[in-house]
Amino acid sequence: MKKFQNYFVLTFALVSGLMLYSCSKDRIEEPDDLNIYQSPNAYLDSKKQPEQDFLIDTNGTGPIVGNQGTLIWGSKNCLKLPNGDTIAFPFNVK
Predict the structure, then answer these.
(1) Which residues make Cβ contacts (< 8 Å) with residue 92, sequence separation at least 6?
(2) What span, in angstroms and rounded, lies between the C-alpha atoms of 57 and 92?
(3) Where are the beta strands (DSSP E) in the chain?
(4) H or E segment to which residue 49 belongs
(5) Do 93 and 60 meet the contact criterion of CB atoms below 8 Å apart?
(6) This model's pTM is above 0.85
(7) What confidence tier does 16 reach under pLDDT thresholds 50, 70, 90?
(8) Which of 2, 48, 61, 63 could join 71 in a cystine, given CB atoms 3.0 to 4.6 angstroms apart?
(9) In whole angstroms, what is the distance from residue 60 CA to residue 79 CA?
(10) Which alpha helices (H) appear in 23-55, and where do they start and end?
C-alpha cells in the first residue's frame, strides 16, 4: 500500500508540473492587429462575395445560375422600375 501511495504522489507531482509549465504566459505572443479597432462594417466587407452581373437579353425560360449554384427563376413581368414602368430588354441583374 505504501508503494502505491509513492507512485500516486510521484504521478501527481509530475502531472502538476507539466500543467504549470504548459500554462506559462511567457510563450504567448499577442498579435499587433488585436489592439487595432476595426468597425463591424470593415469586417463584413472583407467577407463579401464578389458581385455577379447577368445580362438578360431575351425572354428565356431557364434560370439565372450564380457562381455558387444559386438558381433564380423570374421573368420580365416580375420586375418594375421605381416609377412603375416595366423593364425593357436588355437589362442587367446584379
Answers:
(1) 53, 54, 55, 56
(2) 9
(3) 54-56, 64-65, 71-72, 91-93
(4) none
(5) no
(6) no
(7) confident
(8) 63
(9) 15
(10) 40-46
